[in-house]
Amino acid sequence: MANLYELTATSVTSGLVIALGEAFPGVMRYRETAPVQLLAYPHFFVNQLTLDIQPERRNHWMVSYFVTIRYHVAADPSSVNLLQQQLDDISIRLLSDLEYITWNGMPVELKNRRTEKVDGNLFFFCNVNVLATKPIGPEPLQESLETNISRG
Q1: What's the CATH number of domain 2-133, 3.30.710.10, 1.20.1560.10, 3.30.2000.10, 3.40.50.80?
Q2: Which of 68, 75, 132, 138 is in the most buried spot, having the most CB atoms within 10 Å?
Q3: pLDDT of 118 strictly over 80
Q4: 101, 128 in Cβ contact below 8 A?
Q5: Whole-structure pTM over 0.70, yes or no?
C-alpha cells in the first residue's frame, strides 16, 4: 500500500510510460513537458489531468488520477494514408494492452478506459486508482488533571 505523501503524478505516469513501451516498442513516449520541436513521429504524450482524493476508511485514502494519453501519428495527420484504420488499430491495442500498470511493484488496474479520435489524433482516457495510507504519529498522551482543594 502506498504512503499518501509519497504518491506523485510522475510516479503514476511513469508506470503508464513503461506499459506503453512494452505494448508499443519503438514508438516514442513523452510527458507533457517535452519540447515540441524535438518530437519524433509517431509518439505518445502522457499527461495527468486531475487528481482526486477520497477517504475510504480510517487512515486509508483512494487517490484517483485522471490521465490522458495522446497518440500523434504525424505532424500533419491529413497526409497519412489509411489514418482512421491506423487510429482504430492503436485504439484496440491500447484498450487491450493497458488494463493494468505496475506501480511500486504492484499491479494497478486502469478504470474507465476509453478512446476518442479528434483531428487525426487518438486520445486514450483512464483513471488510475491507488489505495494509500496517511502516516499518523503516536497517539497523544492523556494529560492528567490534579486538583488541590484546600480549606481556609
Answers
A1: 3.30.2000.10
A2: 132
A3: yes
A4: yes
A5: yes
